[in-house]
Amino acid sequence: MPHPLEELRKAALGEIEVASDAQSLETARVKYLGRSGSISAWGEQMKTLGKDEKPIVGKLLNQVRNVVTAATEERAQKFRAEKESDTLANIDISLPGTPHERGSLHPLTQMLDRSIDIFRRMGFALADGPDIEDEWHCFDALNTPPDHPARNEQDTFYLPDGRLLRTHTSTVQIRAMQAAPPPMRVIAPGACYRRDEIDATHSAQFHQIEGLYVDENISVADLKGTLEFFMRELFGPETAVRFLPDHFPFTEPSLQIHVRSKALKRGEQWIEVAGCGMVHPAVFEAVNKARGDAAYNPEQWTGFAFGLGMDRLAMILFDIPDIRLFAQNDLRFLRQFA
Ligand code: DAH
Fold first, then answer.
1. How far is CA 239 from CA 150, 216, 224, 231, in A?
2. Is the C-beta atom of 190 inside 6 A of ligand 1?
3. Second label for 169, Cα 20 to 30 Å away, from 98, 211, 292, 304?
């Protein structure tokens, strides 16, 4: 005669098998495996059994409990899978997906990337400096005397502690030379700040790429060659470049660079795009003094420097009429450069 536990197993497995949904399966589970279910009740009954019987029945009880538990779990899994495939069956895979907005680089960033790429091909390394500067790096070391108009409170943002928001990236020339002896060939892209009246061509924050090339026997010819190559790479091979005399305290001679190209919307017009010149010996001397050596001996080393207005270059290249567009975050504007 089969043991009552075996009968119980048979009955339980039968009910589990015929359970038609998750609910009737749960009813069966509680009936047999629940706290007061009939299989659980046998656990209580074990206490009443004799020494000989106990291990045999205990083993059988474990088997029955395991088999019934496994069968319940298997059936429950089947119901879950059915429910999932029902849900999936209701999804219309022919419906168009939710469109994903794709970002793009800001036109100024694109301009910067292109410019950096051209200079890197000519062997320029990247240098960096802080936006918040001291007067020495921004003016004194760059041979700019205390009474120079650029130092005026009307033109420059000063912090209460006397530091300032750099008015140009030329500060990085000084920092680079303090950090390493010549030869030196670096560019330094970054933001600059001036207390300008804001209009279509002036912004309180704008962007420059500074360049500095110091070596033996560097002349204006190297300066011209480098910047002409840059302008032609940027604006196309038919670009004309001209150099006009100018004045900056930190260069001698000083020049301004103009470009003209049929490829540009402004076609026949000459457009000023940069300032440049041969590094003034006084700048080398200031750096030497700060370094405490004579690494930049102006008798041995010469160099050229330049400052390119990035916003202006981008406005020319992309035919953008107003500098304020760069900072307004208007998607109608930005999307045109995606
Ligand atoms: N720092 C100048 C400016 O912001 C631009 C400039 C002119 C940079 C001549 C130079 C340079 O390095 O040699 O107007």
1. 32, 30, 14, 7
2. no
3. 292
